[in-house]
Amino acid sequence: NLSDKLDKALHTLRGHGQITEINVAETTKEVRRALLDADVNFRIAKEFTNKVKEKALGQNVLTALQPGQLMVKIVKDELTELMGGETEGINLSGTPSVILMSGLQGSGKTTFSGKLANFLKTKKTKKPLLVACDVYRPAAIDQLHVVGEQIGVEVYSDRDEKNPVKIAQAGIAKAKSEGYNVVIIDTAGRLAVDTEMMNEISEIHKAIQPQETLFVVDSMTGQDAVNTAKAFNDILNFDGVILTKLDGDTRGGAAISIKSVVDKPIKFIGTGEKMEAIDVFHPSRMAERILGMGDVISLVERAQEQFDEEEARKIQKKIAKNKFGFDDFLSQIQQIKKMGNIKDLMGMIPGAGKALKGLDIDDDAFKHIEAIIHSMTPDERSNPSKLNVSRKKRIAKGSGREVQEVNQLLKQFDQMSKMMKMMQGGGGKKMMQMMGN
Ligand code: GDP
Ligand code: MG
């Protein structure tokens, strides 16, 4: 599967000292294969990996990132870019703003119409009206009414009118006279692209001139989704794409292909049948999903951001002079804590999420250690060798811990000091990498 393949691809890079032509070629080959597996169009996958290759070879490996991580970052950034970079909202400027749904039958138009109405309703200033323009099946009108009732949104329909253009216009007129400021028009689709459906949606589009025309597509349809998107875009020049059914194990490769072919932003995703299962589309999250690699990248970035180089250098000097004390230890703990909650951090490691379930990790694993150090005098912190039995007892009492724990901490501290002295040359970065691993 995709994530296994990428894992393998990226594995070949781990441990290598620099990004070279050879390991980049190896990795991009695997990335390309992975994209093809995720239903990304061949040409797009190829273009993509070429771009990644170019970027990777131009990079210097100066940062705390190892080449493998850097490569992951490049792949992810490029994928994000490919899917549209920043998140785009929908245009709600009209009075009322008219939103037209288009797409094949079963893509999720009716469901998404309800989800969007519900989503907008929670913004206190929006009062949406749903309009039922699927005139072919009586059940389609019923379906929209059921949805409307569920979310408490008014639905306009006319069972005697067979012309969807007229229904749409009547719906908009009702909105104007009754103070609805958003009109969502649900339309009929067919199982495949055909002239009749295209003519109909095109006529509705021309007649009502919506502020926003959305193309709804089932993300499980893979390559077919691209052709459908292209056909609809040729006729409607739509404003945005809605990717539905991204729950389950759809990989979302369709997102990349569609975006590349029609160059329109993906605006929302559907993640279930319930009305609440709607999310604003985030290109970076989708990139992660497609890569199937958890949140490693945020972890790496956060580590980089938070680790204070200056502090690291200071500590390094102290180690060299044998002056590393408990105060420095404490400041290191602060550094680690700045990176976030331990459980969150571990959750970002792929595969660890599952392992962590049911495991009870203290949110503040350093609490006791900090308490003990705080009970030491400044002199004791700089000169741990002064800690005799009576001092240890006093510290234990002061921190509310057992003497045993104080002893344990001293032992750990001793080991750590030795270890740090050993890797002195590498300084803070090496230390960070060790913690990362
Ligand atoms: P339409 O023909 O385009 O109006 O599609 P519908 O809204 O009737 O949806 C077709 C089917 O897909 C229905 O059974 C929906 O419950 C289901 N559906 C729609 N959106 C989603 C989604 O995001 N996730 C899942 N799992 N099912 C969905
Ligand atoms: Mg429908």
UniProtKB/TrEMBL annotation:
<dbReference type="InterPro" id="IPR036891">
    <property type="entry name" value="Signal_recog_part_SRP54_M_sf"/>
</dbReference>
<protein>
    <recommendedName>
        <fullName>Signal recognition particle protein</fullName>
        <ecNumber>3.6.5.4</ecNumber>
    </recommendedName>
</protein>
<dbReference type="InterPro" id="IPR004125">
    <property type="entry name" value="Signal_recog_particle_SRP54_M"/>
</dbReference>
<keyword id="KW-0378">Hydrolase</keyword>
<comment type="similarity">
    <text>Belongs to the GTP-binding SRP family. SRP54 subfamily.</text>
</comment>
<keyword id="KW-0687">Ribonucleoprotein</keyword>
<dbReference type="Pfam" id="PF02978">
    <property type="entry name" value="SRP_SPB"/>
</dbReference>
<dbReference type="GO" id="GO:0006614">
    <property type="term" value="P:SRP-dependent cotranslational protein targeting to membrane"/>
</dbReference>
<dbReference type="InterPro" id="IPR004780">
    <property type="entry name" value="SRP"/>
</dbReference>
<dbReference type="GO" id="GO:0048500">
    <property type="term" value="C:signal recognition particle"/>
</dbReference>
<dbReference type="GO" id="GO:0005525">
    <property type="term" value="F:GTP binding"/>
</dbReference>
<comment type="function">
    <text>Involved in targeting and insertion of nascent membrane proteins into the cytoplasmic membrane. Binds to the hydrophobic signal sequence of the ribosome-nascent chain (RNC) as it emerges from the ribosomes. The SRP-RNC complex is then targeted to the cytoplasmic membrane where it interacts with the SRP receptor FtsY.</text>
</comment>
<dbReference type="InterPro" id="IPR000897">
    <property type="entry name" value="SRP54_GTPase_dom"/>
</dbReference>
<keyword id="KW-0694">RNA-binding</keyword>
<dbReference type="InterPro" id="IPR042101">
    <property type="entry name" value="SRP54_N_sf"/>
</dbReference>
<keyword id="KW-0963">Cytoplasm</keyword>
<dbReference type="GO" id="GO:0008312">
    <property type="term" value="F:7S RNA binding"/>
</dbReference>
<dbReference type="GO" id="GO:0003924">
    <property type="term" value="F:GTPase activity"/>
</dbReference>
<dbReference type="InterPro" id="IPR022941">
    <property type="entry name" value="SRP54"/>
</dbReference>
<comment type="subunit">
    <text>Part of the signal recognition particle protein translocation system, which is composed of SRP and FtsY.</text>
</comment>
<feature type="binding site">
    <location>
        <begin position="186"/>
        <end position="190"/>
    </location>
    <ligand>
        <name>GTP</name>
    </ligand>
</feature>
<dbReference type="InterPro" id="IPR003593">
    <property type="entry name" value="AAA+_ATPase"/>
</dbReference>
<keyword id="KW-0733">Signal recognition particle</keyword>
<dbReference type="InterPro" id="IPR013822">
    <property type="entry name" value="Signal_recog_particl_SRP54_hlx"/>
</dbReference>
<dbReference type="Pfam" id="PF02881">
    <property type="entry name" value="SRP54_N"/>
</dbReference>
<keyword id="KW-0547">Nucleotide-binding</keyword>
<keyword id="KW-0342">GTP-binding</keyword>
<feature type="binding site">
    <location>
        <begin position="103"/>
        <end position="110"/>
    </location>
    <ligand>
        <name>GTP</name>
    </ligand>
</feature>
<feature type="binding site">
    <location>
        <begin position="244"/>
        <end position="247"/>
    </location>
    <ligand>
        <name>GTP</name>
    </ligand>
</feature>
<dbReference type="InterPro" id="IPR027417">
    <property type="entry name" value="P-loop_NTPase"/>
</dbReference>
<dbReference type="Pfam" id="PF00448">
    <property type="entry name" value="SRP54"/>
</dbReference>
<feature type="domain" description="SRP54-type proteins GTP-binding">
    <location>
        <begin position="265"/>
        <end position="278"/>
    </location>
</feature>
